[in-house]
Design goal:
By secondary structure, the chain is of the alpha+beta class. Helix content is 30%, strand content 23%.
Length: 145
């Protein structure tokens, strides 16, 4: 297996942001003067290319939204550590993490990213199952006899 991580994340060459979506948490670093999108999964402890990890082009395109809005695509390499949730939620968590890291890089990006809704926390999570019911809201069928 080839070495995927070809850059070093240091304090002076990177910007950090944390994104959350559903049960997923992504810690994201934007690394200057490097290219590549790398994801490390907490479950498998393996690093892989982000496009291969997310499997869908639509999920990878979602990750690129903050970079495209601020015209910084190609200036940074992205290194993300993801934990929990599914691939779609992890992709959105990475997107929110990139947006926050871009604000730490340049505070002038805040208005652009805020208008796009990328700095707002999407707090929707799965509703818990209630007792006496099949699921969160579905009830057992009632029979008269």
């Amino acid at each position: 297996m080839a070495i995927v991580r070809n850059f070093k994340v240091l304090e002076d060459n990177s910007y950090h942001g944390v994104g959350k979506r559903k049960d997923s948490v992504a810690r994201v670093w934007l690394v200057k003067n490097s290219s590549g999108f790398i994801v490390k999964s907490k479950d498998s402890q393996k690093e892989s290319d982000m496009r291969e990890y997310l499997q869908r082009d639509s999920s990878f395109a979602k990750v690129l939204i903050p970079l495209n809005l601020t015209n910084t695509n190609g200036k940074f390499g992205v290194y993300a550590i993801v934990n929990g949730g599914g691939l779609s939620a992890q992709a959105e968590a990475i997107m929110y993490g990139i947006a926050r890291a871009l604000v730490s890089y340049n505070p002038n990006f805040r208005t652009t990213l805020k208008r796009a809704g990328l700095l707002k926390v999407d707090a929707r999570i799965k509703e818990r199952k209630k007792y006496g019911k099949m699921g969160a809201r579905a009830k057992f069928r009632w029979s008269k006899r």
